[in-house]
Design a protein that fits this description.
Chain B: This is AzlD domain-containing protein. The complex is a heterodimer of chains A (267) and B (101). With 267 residues, chain A is mainly alpha-helical. Helix content of chain A is 72%, strand content 0%. With 101 residues, chain B is mainly α. Classes of the chains: A mainly alpha (267), B mainly alpha (101). At the A-B interface, helix 1, helix 2, helix 4, helix 5 and helix 6 of A face helix 1, helix 2, strand 2, helix 3 and helix 4 of B.
Chain lengths: 267, 101
């Protein structure tokens, strides 16, 4: 149990290429780690299926999300925004921004896995929090590939199966709110967020984002407050850069900030 | 129909984000600021979503059983409980508070 937590906690850790060279790890141990994460998280597709069906999405729409989007936080964000009355574009934009982090996971994973070009479009669908958390700490390329494949496969199969069951079960449950299932999605977000809150920068960002999201909720259309709360990230980075004093620090932080923000909008 | 538009856009967008990461040369990640922003964006979004889905009710802010559920999830996280237990605790406590209230 502690093992799973430990792996989830590594999600936000910087990739260290040097671990690749150090030591080896038995295949069975890698598979065990991967299965632990894959099964635990895969089963929570049930909560997504129920939440999605409870938000008014059809069985087909719910399953399409798990099959095609396959990144839990984005899926929960999308059905949450649609249920709150958001229009399809702001809802999708929020879900997409949340999915952008997978691009950065992919950057790290592509070095570790060194996949053939032809395989990459297939492997891409499995580039998510959990596969990254399992793959990054592996000591060898072989272990990384096993970890990625086993986690990805287990999670994909279970997540889609339990989504289907959850969506089917939602009707049998009747009022899903009475069962407390509307608390599943914020709990999922919190579980993903917690290991990322390591330093003051992260905590201040989270706090500012919460203030923005709750403060803007009553005055802006559904979905927009979450999008705007993403601004907490560049704002805090800029302020932290300034706080560090350095004339250079403040200047470069300020000008570079515009770079990544723009490239993300371009996609 | 609106829902299908949202699903299609999200599916395409999220897939392209994943694929881009695998295809782009590693050098793109060299700049420390890009890394920092990439690490901070999900923090902001996840915090905002957690707050909104706990305290939001359409366009209104509200304090209900979900807050108790989230507190239970936070406690489970502090105790280093596995993912499923965290989500299960939130669901069970929310349902319990509603049953009592």
């Amino acid at each position: 149990m502690a093992e799973k937590t430990a792996h989830l906690r590594t999600t936000a850790e910087p990739a260290s290429g040097s671990t690749l060279a150090a030591g080896t790890k038995p295949d069975a141990a890698v598979v065990r780690d991967a299965l632990g994460v894959g099964v635990a998280v895969g089963l929570s597709g049930f909560a997504f299926g129920v939440t999605s069906a409870g938000s008014g999405l059809s069985l087909l729409q719910t399953c399409a999300l798990s099959l095609l989007v396959f990144t839990g936080a984005s899926q929960f964000a999308l059905v949450g925004a649609l249920a709150a009355g958001g229009n399809p574009y702001t809802a999708a934009a929020g879900a997409f921004f949340l999915g952008v982090r997978n691009a950065f996971y992919g950057l790290r994973l592509s070095q570790l896995l060194a996949l053939p070009r032809a395989l990459r479009p297939l492997a891409a669908q499995w580039v998510i929090d959990e596969t990254t958390a399992v793959t990054l700490p592996q000591p060898t390329r072989r272990a990384a590939r096993i970890g990625f494949t086993v986690t990805g496969l287990t999670l994909y199969v279970l997540w889609n199966l339990t989504t289907l069951l959850g969506a089917l079960g939602a009707e049998a449950l009747g009022d899903t709110d009475a069962w407390g299932l509307d608390a599943a999605s914020p709990a999922v977000f919190l579980a993903l967020l917690a290991p990322m809150l390591k330093s003051t920068t992260e905590r201040v960002t989270a706090g500012l984002a919460v203030l923005l999201a709750l403060g803007l909720l009553p005055v802006l259309p559904a979905g927009v407050p979450v999008l705007l709360s993403a601004l907490a990230a560049p704002v805090v980075l800029f302020l932290m850069g300034r706080a560090k004093g350095g004339d250079a620090g403040a200047g470069t932080t300020g000008t570079k900030d515009a770079g990544p923000a723009r490239t993300e909008e371009d996609r | 129909m609106n829902v299908w538009i949202a699903i299609a856009l999200t599916a395409v967008g999220c897939y392209l984000a994943k694929l881009l990461g695998l295809l782009v040369p590693a050098g793109a990640l060299e700049r420390p600021l890009v890394q920092r922003l990439a690490a901070l964006l999900p923090v902001a979004l996840l915090a905002a979503l957690t707050a909104q889905q706990t305290f939001g009710d359409g366009q209104h802010l509200t304090l209900d059983a979900r807050a108790a559920g989230l507190a239970a999830a936070a406690l489970a996280l502090v105790l280093r409980a596995p993912f499923l237990v965290v989500v299960g605790a939130a669901v069970a406590v929310t349902a319990g508070v509603r049953a009592l209230g």
